[in-house]
Design goal:
Elements: H1 18-26, E1 36-42, H2 46-57, E2 62-66, H3 77-81, E3 84-88, E4 94-98, E5 111-112, H4 117-122, H5 128-137, E6 140-141, H6 150-161, E7 167-168, E8 170-172, H7 191-199, E9 203-206, E10 208-216, E11 219-228, E12 234-246, H8 252-259, E13 274-281, E14 295-299, E15 303-307, H9 312-321, E16 334-341, E17 348-349, E18 355-356, H10 361-380, E19 384-388, E20 392-393, E21 417-419, H11 433-448
Helix pairs in contact: 2-7, 2-11, 5-11
Length: 451
């Protein structure tokens, strides 16, 4: 039951000290040219950031290539829009992501669901030690009611009164920064692990778009990437390393592997976990900010229902996207429930690099039932004026499968080339942040024995 979905994005809140980021930015202009590294990590989301952090702590020479920029994260519409990016999954369905240091943890709710240890054991991967270590380091805890939004609490009480079996999720939130209530700075992001890696000697290059992995006689030896010099000009560069870790994200990694000569990615389709939110209005509650995504429940095994009461910025973004102009600035009386379903494998990654999938009839039936449950829940809580948002893809998983596309050490068919992001997680992992941190620790332990 603990695998409920982190149903919709929320703005990241973890910011770092000025001194730490001055140290980080001071390294950004040190172009390594054709220098050789012990490990090159493509992507700085939770998987890649963890690998870079763990290896650099052990003295390895690590290079991190991040496609996005490195501007400090800020609250507000323009700052959030500047890092958002969408990937089409066919028709009007898109998957949202963030291109920035720390990846999509910059725009997530902060829910932390334990990895399914037995599922990974059946695939030859033991994450128990990695999980124990991660839980001892991270700011993981269930949040007190004082840090949650009033509509979240109202919906939680209604769900329990209606007989739903709730899962109260742990959150990646540093409560020590919430002495006066909700704090934009409190949520953990992978950016903090990148900062640790750089402090330990790793090099970070932002604006670096990996084009292909360089391979010689079946072994990965480096990465070719483009570094944007201006809006219209980019310089092609090559860097070399003994280990290459692709952690570019569940949408980008399969494309990069295909461009590098691995052709069987997504050969059995993929999963996209369609999701949407049902919004309403409710009177009589204070419109204070708080953390969302702290609870959820499952209907009929594969329909996930959960708290979708976001912070003010994300609420405004969603209302603008839905063209609900009058609701953009009515955050105080908004109430929302998220719906996500587990879809079956299908669709394709086309030769032009586009994902395409049409939802099956049974998927439509699940979405309809989820919407009905969400509407009843909001109405029971006193909500009115309900509407449903567009359907989005929560993720793109199943393109790379453990023991088929990668082995139990996450290595591909090329020696020295590994994958550590959402593209390798099993399809039942729908809130992957903690799982990816554990996989990053697991992979770093393996790599450190051969670097």
């Amino acid at each position: 039951m603990e695998k409920c979905q982190d149903l919709s994005p929320s703005l990241t809140t973890f910011m770092h000290s000025r001194d730490a980021w001055s140290h980080l930015e001071a390294r950004l202009d040190k172009q390594p040219g054709n220098a050789e590294f012990d490990a090159i990590v493509i992507g700085s989301g939770p998987g890649g950031a963890t690998v870079a952090r763990e290896l650099s702590r052990r003295g390895s020479r690590v290079l991190i290539l991040e496609r996005g920029g490195n501007a400090p994260l800020r609250d507000g519409l323009f700052a959030t829009v500047s890092i958002l990016n969408g990937v089409s999954v066919g028709g009007k369905i898109f998957m949202g992501r963030a291109l920035t240091t720390g990846g999509t943890t910059a725009v997530y709710l902060g829910s932390a669901v334990r990895p399914p240890l037995e599922t990974f054991r059946s695939l030859g991967i033991d994450l128990s030690m990695a999980l124990e270590e991660a839980e001892s380091e991270l700011p993981l805890a269930t949040l007190p009611d004082a840090l949650l939004r009033p509509p979240s609490l109202k919906l939680r009480d209604s769900a329990m009164a209606m007989g739903h079996e709730l899962v109260i999720r742990r959150m990646l939130v540093d409560q020590s920064t919430c002495t006066s209530g909700y704090s934009y700075r409190a949520k953990w992001t992978a950016r903090s692990y990148v900062e640790d890696a750089v402090r330990n000697g790793a090099t970070l290059i932002n604006g670096a778009r990996a084009r292909r992995v360089l391979v010689d006689q079946g072994r990965a030896i480096g990465v070719e990437y483009e570094l944007g010099k201006t809006r219209r000009q980019a310089e092609t560069r090559q860097v070399f390393g003994s280990k290459i870790v692709v952690a570019a994200g569940c949408a980008s990694t399969p494309l990069l592997l295909r461009a590098s000569g691995i052709r069987n990615v997504a050969n059995r389709g993929f999963f996209c976990h369609p999701s949407f939110a049902v919004f309403g209005t409710i009177s009589g509650l204070k419109g204070t900010e708080g953390f969302g995504g702290s609870w959820g429940f499952i209907v009929d095994n594969d329909i996930h229902i959960g708290d979708a009461n976001f912070d003010r910025t994300v609420h405004r973004l969603l209302m603008l996207r839905e063209r609900k102009w009058l609701r953009v600035f009515r955050y105080g009386n908004a109430i929302a429930v998220g719906v996500m379903i587990m879809d079956g494998p299908g669709g394709e990654l086309r030769e032009d690099g586009r994902y395409y999938k049409e939802l099956a009839a049974e998927d439509g039936a699940k979405l309809a039932k989820g919407e009905e449950v969400a509407r009843r829940l909001i109405e029971h809580a006193g909500g009115k004026n309900l509407f449903r948002t567009f359907v989005n893809a929560s993720s793109i998983t199943g393109t790379l499968r453990i023991q088929e596309h990668v082995d139990e050490n996450l290595q591909t068919e090329y020696r020295g080339l590994y994958v550590c992001d959402g593209s390798v997680v099993p399809p039942d992992v729908v809130t992957p942040t903690l799982t990816l941190i554990c996989l990053g620790k697991y992979l770093a332990n393996h790599l450190s024995r051969s670097i």
